[in-house]
Amino acid sequence: MAEKDNILEIRGLCKYFGSTAANDHIDFDLKRGEVRGLAGENGSGKSTLLQQIAGIYLKDEGVMTLNGEPYDPKNPIDAIQKKVGIVVQELGVLNNLPAGVNVFSGRMKQFTKFGVIDMKQVYREAEALFDKYGLMKVPLHQMCRQMSIESRKMVELARALSGDPDILILDEVTQSLSQNNRDMLYHLIDLLKKEGKTLIIITHDLEEMLEICDSISVLRDGQLITTKDSSMLDTDEVKRLMVGREVSNEYYRSDMQANYGEEIVLHVEDVCVPGELEHVSFQLHKGEILGFCGLSDSGIHEVGKAVFAISSHRKGNVVLQAEGRIQINSIHAATSNGMAYVPKDRDGEALMMQDSILSNFVLPSLNELQGKGIFLSPKKLRELTDQGIKDYNVKCRGANQKMNGLSGGNKQKVNLGRWLVKDLNVLVLDCPTRGVDVGVKAYIYHMMEEAKKKGLSMLLISDELPEVLGMSDRLIVMKNGRIQGEFTRGENFTQEALIEVMV
Predict the structure, then answer these.
(1) Phi and psi dihedrals of 265, rounded to 5?
(2) Fewer beta carbons within 10 Å, N or C terminal of the chain?
(3) Is the pLDDT of residue 39 over 70?
(4) Model confidence over 212-266: pLDDT tens digits?
């Protein structure tokens, strides 16, 4: 296809962070009406490339051309005005503004007359946008901080679409969505493609990428390795290109039978959370991985919060069977009795992004790291962190590096590793592989299997059906805040069986 059919052309693009070249002389062409996938391991430079295209980062070297004209966006608003929109991997909403205002944040002049903003028009236009593209409805007057990750992603998507972009960039959007909203997104991609729009998509679900993308570009160590039509690739070839070698397909458990002890370590009895959960009861056994799945608003993510006593106005009992029956009515009661919680919103709810790896890694273990008197032992802090970095293969410059300088996969290794170094009874995992590449995903599953062998009991909450099917001993399906069905690892452990109950 001739160059005139290219909507975007990039030559020699470089981006440096200190001495590290996140993008190293990248040449990248994008055709009009094309859906391009971008594959690569965490830290390969995918998001950095897209954020330069979207004006989040300024390029250090190179030239970009959009519609045949020089293109050098100074910020995301500049990019939107030039018809380039993005939904970033990590949450990009303004939490202290309502959803409807977030949709048009930075571009409120269109609703302003004589210095007064017509807020009714803002909300009308936002609602019309959700209707036009068939997006999952969210309460537009509600503050974004009160919303789930999935709802906030819908707001970000609406904001990107509000500029009627010629190029729409989706960076790890599907891993924040439940199955029904993934189907909605696939329909939206088809709609935009028919309208002649161009999309760039990052997803660590390689089967999904091959299904929805026309072509795939592979990055490795900041360099563009190749671009090929999707029809010429399969998942094994994409993995090989990503890492430069053959990669095993054995991510999940190889056994197909439930395997755990008879001892019950956690009783959840008639738990209710107004508007979220209704009469949820289950038991968790020693060494068991108990999975939870469901569509959006099914209540699976609220289960994790309720078990860990985060939910306000929770009724019912959560009882840990440790040395006697221990009522878990507070986060302190949970953590002080060997329970841990890894939330879906890693950056917003778990990690201190502006602080060091050391500060994040030692936080759950402060009681064990005290030196003389009430003071913490700097030596113990450093030893625990250095050992954790080594044991969990965290790729970093050292213990003092800030968390926001790590890739998603390495953030999650810190997030999980800091809990697994402790003597735990129960670990609650909410979407533990969201936003990580295939290599880190396999590594996390290996960590889970090793922990299971040692007798750790886990709740695995996930929007990805292959994940809960691949790792769980039992599976609970939820719908509208209630338990809808239960499956035990065996012959009927299939996506089709789950979906039939979920819908």
Answers:
(1) -105, -20
(2) N
(3) yes
(4) 999 999 999 899 999 999 999 998 899 889 877 655 556 788 888 999 999 999 9
Which residues have CB under 8 Å from 292's CB, separation 6+?
Answer: 300, 303, 304, 459, 460, 461, 462, 468, 475, 476, 478
Q: What are phi and psi of 477, to 5 degrees?
A: -100, 130
Nearest to 90 by CA among 20, 173, 30: 173
DSSP-derived pairing of the beta strands 20-31 and 84-87 = unpaired
Chain-centre distance for alpha carbon 376:
33
- At 373, the pLDDT band (50, 70, 90 cuts) reads low
Q: Which two tokens stand for residue 339?
A: 């329970």
Tell me whether residue 372 is exposed, middle or buried, using C-beta atoms within 10 angstroms of its C-beta: 0 to 12, 13 to 18, 19 or more: exposed
The pair of structure tokens assigned to 136 is 């999952």
- Cα–Cα dist 486/292, whole Å: 9
Both tokens of 159, joined, read: 């904001």
Determine the Cα–Cα distance for residues 291 and 29; give it in Å rounded to an integer: 42
CA nearest to 305, candidates 153, 453, 177, 149: 149
| Residue 212 to residues 1, 49, 187, 193, 209, Cα–Cα distance (Å) | 21, 21, 10, 11, 5
Euclidean distance between CA atoms 4 and 347, whole angstroms: 41
pLDDT band at residue 2, thresholds of 50, 70 and 90?
A: very low
pTM for the complete prediction? Answer: 0.73
- Is pLDDT above 90 for 395? no
What tokens were used for 281? Answer: 């009861």
**CA-closest candidate to residue 40, choices 214, 239, 231:** 239
**112: β partners:** 117
**Residue 190 is encoded by which pair of tokens?**
């088809």
Please tell me whether residue 308 adopts helix, strand or coil conformation: coil
The answer to whether the CB of 199 falls within 8 A of the CB of 170 is yes
Lowest mean pLDDT among 265-274, 357-366, 451-460: 357-366
Q: Are 478 and 292 in contact (CB under 8 A)?
A: yes
CB 372 within 8 A of CB 379: no
Provide the token pair at 310. 């985060």
**Bridge partners, residue 200, by sequence:** 36, 169
CA 184/CA 130 separation, integer angstroms? 12
141 sits in which H/E element: none
- Token pair 């789930």 is at which residue? 148
In this structure, are residues 310 and 341 in contact, taking their beta carbons and an 8 Å threshold?
yes
The encoded tokens of residue 476 equal 């609970």
- The torsion region of residue 341 among left (phi > 0), alpha (psi -120 to 50) and beta comes to beta
The number of C-alpha atoms within 13 Å of 41 and in the hemisphere containing its C-beta is: 21
> CA nearest 462: which of 452, 442, 451, 477?
477
